[in-house]
Design goal:
Layout lengths: L7 H11 L2 E5 L6 E5 L7 H15 L1 H17 L20
Antiparallel strand pairs: 1-2
The chain binds zinc ion (ZN).
Zinc ion binds next to loops.
Amino acid sequence: MGEVYTLPSEIARLIRSYRRRHKLVCPVCGQEFEGETGRKYCSRRCANRAASRGYRQRNLEKIRARQRERYHRLKASPTTGPGQAGPENGPPSDRP
Ligand SMILES: [Zn+2]
């Protein structure tokens, strides 16, 4: 009777050696860091920054069009705005 099955510790070692750490360079900040295989950025902050940057680049036309539309709408109706005087300064009836 031989041991034909692989020991769990053997598997764990295999996995560990498979996803060992590499020296990588972050494409966002250019910093060298040690990361597992498949990791791209040195930190979550850089990953977020890269993601938001990509989003901006992809939706630049959309964002510009929206800004232009808002600008025209503001110009079209200059009478009604959010800067109206509210009832914050109540009546001075509580004064003696
Ligand atoms: Zn980075």
